[in-house]
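In the lab's daily routine, each protein ends up as an entry in a very long ledger. A line of letters takes care of the sequence, but it says nothing directly about the fold. The three-dimensional part falls to structure tokens, numbers that each stand for a local backbone shape. The outcome of that step, for a single protein, is printed below.
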Amino acid sequence: MQDFLKAFLAFLIIMDPFVSSLYFIGVSRNFSRKEKRDAVNLSALIACITLLIFLFGGPVTLGLLGISIPSFKIAGGIVLLIISIAFILGTSKEREEERISKDAAIMIIGVRLMTGPGVLTTTIIMRANYGLMVTSLAALASLVVTWLFLIGADLTHFLLRDKGMEIASRIMGLLLAAIAIQFVLDGLQTVGVATIREGMKGIVAH
């Protein structure tokens, strides 16, 4: 249960439903209520499919490329740290006020916001840390929460206003920065221990 909560919170923080909601409100101003609901549902479906593909295919891809999990943790942690800084500074995702099509909004929300590079990076690291089942359930639960935020985006915005949602997003960014640094430290620790062991073997062999 503890592993599930850790993975769930990590996914939820990087998905940042507050930023997604703000963006969705901006691009869906001219949508009907049905168009909004359809856009959110299809976006969530696309995000779920993308996440499942990466959940199963990501580790295989790393293996084919000869990339170790510790190395990926270090690289992934750095990527997440950069994303977290953008969250904290409030420059992570521009709100697009111009009118765009429903199809464009669906792809942007489903692929760029709900399953962007940070989410896909987190997926591989969480699977390495907690296994396939825990990671799958945590990712699905986070998607459901984000979907609920998008469905109720107007209500959330009414309660928190722009400023409240931006503050919540920046808090998410700070938490994400801590997670990112922990990923890097875990990777460095594993690489360091392996290097020391190899060095000891070389000394013993001589």
